Amino acid sequence: MDPIHLEATATTPKVNIDPSVDKFEISGESRPENAAKFYLPIIAWLDNYKSVLYFQKNSFGKAKAMKVNFKLDYFNSTSAKFILDIFYQLDKIRVDGFEIEVVWHYDGRDTDMKDSGEEFSSYVPELTVKYVEY
């Protein structure tokens, strides 16, 4: 699968999704004018990535674990809906028997951002989410 590399802009986060180097990260600010246009390709990529994991599992007996890092400084309410959709997509991958870990990074001075991560994870309680303060 082709990786996704999107540089951050004034309104969109940096996205670096490259399984060849075990990199799954979304960082920065998210307030795109058209959040669906920005996030739907990421969600579709994750859905398609399940076939790669199935191949690894069938060929090698085990698929690589995925560690997904969120390092968001800010996101608007429209982005929140799509971030939650990413959590749902990751949980679907977990339900299919693959190891997923989400790492939610947050500024220690920004308790709202930690609370947001906890709220997202409350919708998918079986998904492993770690919180890392910086």
How many β-strands, per DSSP?
A: 6
Q: What does the average pLDDT come to?
A: 94
Domain module count: 1
Rg from C-alpha positions? Answer: 14 Å
As a percent range, the share of helical residues equals 40-55%
Just name the CATH architecture. Answer: 2-Layer Sandwich
Strands of the widest sheet, in order across it, are 1-2-3-4-5-6
DSSP helix count? Answer: 3
Describe this structure in words.
With 134 residues, the chain is of the alpha/beta class. The longest helix has 26 residues, at 35-60. A hairpin with a 7-residue loop joins strand 1 (4-6) and strand 2 (14-18). It is built from 3 helices and 6 strands; from the N terminus they run βββαβαβαβ. The chain has helices at 35-60, 77-95, 111-122; strands at 4-6, 14-18, 23-30, 66-75, 100-106, 128-133. The protein has one domain: Transcription Regulator spoIIAA (2-Layer Sandwich). Strands 1-2-3-4-5-6 form a 6-stranded mixed β-sheet, with helices on one face. The protein is globular and about 45 Å long.
